[in-house]
Amino acid sequence: MVHCSCVLFRKYGNFIDNLRLFTKGGSGGMGYPRLGGEGGKGGDVWVVARNRMTLKQLKDKYPQKRFVAGVGANSKVSALKGSKGEDCEIPVPVGISVTDENGKIIGELNKENDRILVAEGGLGGKLLTNFLPLKGQRRIIHLDLKVIADVGLVGFPNAGKSSLLSCVSHAKPAIADYAFTTLKPELGKIMYRDFKQISVADLPGLIEGAHMNKGMGHKFLKHIERTRQLLFVVDISGFQLSSHTQYRTAFETIILLTKELELYKEELQTKPALLAVNKMDLPDAQSKFHELMNQLQNPKDFLHLFGKNMTPERTVGFQHIIPISAVTGEGIEELKNCIRKSLDEQANQENDAHHKKQLLNLWISDTVSSSEPPSKHAVTTSKIDII
């Protein structure tokens, strides 16, 4: 057992989801006082999203973690306007949030070639600066990776999330019979016959107290912020992390997962959610599933069994509840269809909301413009003679 945990620790050590970098824009070039020449502006430092890039690759390639742009050229007789210094680009993976030293968000990079200016170059010397150049901006930035996926798998360790991901997609995550199999986000894609693709993220397993950064803690929770929907995966036979921890039924597992999400960030509970009840191939699974459905349909009848600190403010209303077995394949096709249906419904709702917002803005704009008195220079159509 010790051997396994050591191997897993080394594996996790290869995955990096945050980095601290020093950036500095280039200094401007000197002006040319005698002829009024202007020095070139210093180069800028940009963070640029690149597919197939990882933060580990960035750290390995630039171990000093310093990024400085080029200096602007001096003004001279042959070139009174100095050329701009060379920009510096920091290649990062898609899904990066960039913050400054105070935690203020500078920007996010959600797709290939997105770019953010993080350190501006200094102005070149000119008349206003007495022909002396200005230094470039210095800035410490933090890169924080949050996986972007359509669906994020939520579940305690050993719920079968890795097995499920390998069932529904072409991903090949590590699968074993010890609790913490997944120690870094794994991404897979569900491929449909009409070539529709839906991305699914298997994320490091939650444990009770994850919101307080126990276990994988925030390393897990921050990654589900960018998923469009949540897919809860629970073991029908319940869950027990170790002999020193309390056994939890499937219903208790769902309540505790909900509470962890609520304590970390309440907005996560507003995401559409589905529930996959796994390991339906086990003995007595059917009777336990009927019991679970009764508990989910009447949660208030059972919440009094939980301590106040374990009871979420609101329970999750699952759009679909699908019994599955990642081992035998039972219910997998139905699950894939439900995932697609749920995402399509969400997309339609978002489109409707967007159109309604546009119409409202248009109506407000028309109302404001019609209520404003015409200026004395305005020409109204009633005064125009149309020939």
CATH topology of the largest domain: Rossmann fold
Do you know the CATH architecture of the largest domain? 3-Layer(aba) Sandwich
Query: What is the CATH C-level name of the largest domain?
Result: Alpha Beta
Strand order of the largest sheet: 10-11-9-12-13-14
CATH superfamily of the largest domain: P-loop containing nucleotide triphosphate hydrolases
Rg, nearest Å: 28 Å
Using the alpha-carbon principal axes, give the shape: elongated
Q: How would you describe the overall organization of this protein?
A:
Helix 6 (285-297) links the parallel strand 13 (273-278) and strand 14 (321-323). This protein is an alpha/beta fold. The longest helix has 40 residues, at 332-371. It folds into two domains: 18-145, GTP1/OBG domain (Spo0b-associated Gtp-binding Protein, Chain: A, Distorted Sandwich), CATH 2.70.210; 149-345, Rossmann fold (3-Layer(aba) Sandwich). It has helices at residues 2-13, 55-61, 161-168, 218-221, 250-264, 285-297, 332-371, and strands at residues 18-24, 45-49, 66-68, 88-92, 96-100, 105-109, 115-119, 138-145, 151-154, 186-191, 197-202, 229-235, 273-278, 321-323. The chain is built from seven helices and 14 strands. The strands form three sheets. A six-stranded mixed beta sheet has the order 10-11-9-12-13-14, with helices on both faces.
Short description, anyone?
This protein has 387 residues and is an alpha/beta fold.
Key words describing this protein structure:
six-stranded mixed β-sheet, 14 strands, GTP-binding protein 10, Spo0b-associated Gtp-binding Protein, Chain: A, single chain, elongated, 387 residues, 2 domains, five-stranded mixed β-sheet, magnesium ion binding, 7 helices, 26% helix, GTP1_OBG_dom_sf, alpha/beta, Rossmann fold
